[in-house]
Amino acid sequence: QAIDDDCNQTGQLLAAMLDWPQGTFASRVQLESGAVLVEREVDGGLETLRLRLPAVLTADLRLNEPRYATLPNIMKAKKKPLEVIPAAELGVPTGAPRLKVLQVQEPPPRAGGEKVESVESLVGKLRQAGRI
Questions:
Q1: What is the model's pTM?
Q2: Is the N end or the C end of the chain the one with fewer CB atoms within 10 Å?
Q3: Rounded distance between C-alpha atoms, residue 131 and residue 129, angstroms
Q4: What distance in Å separates the CA atoms of residue 10 and residue 58, rounded to the nearest whole number?
């Protein structure tokens, strides 16, 4: 699941920034020479797209069956060395970051809840607080 609140924004924004074709909600992917066939579920059935490569694809839940790691394999993975590859070796352009973090702070603590006797008193309290 994406960190964009499941709004399907991350893949589409990335495709726009790279100016690459995009295939969203892929339920089946098949590579061809210089292209990819993407099958996706739509309201009327299945839609198949042929995109030139490179392309950005986002996955539907039916694309893969997840493999769950066993405890012995997790322990083995902890012992494996982690290889760090500089971005320049991968051809990724480096430069000044596009975003700058100005401030990070915790949200204010939430006030405790309050029980009301009736819907009318709830509406009155909401009006008094300026919520409606």
A1: 0.51
A2: N
A3: 6
A4: 9
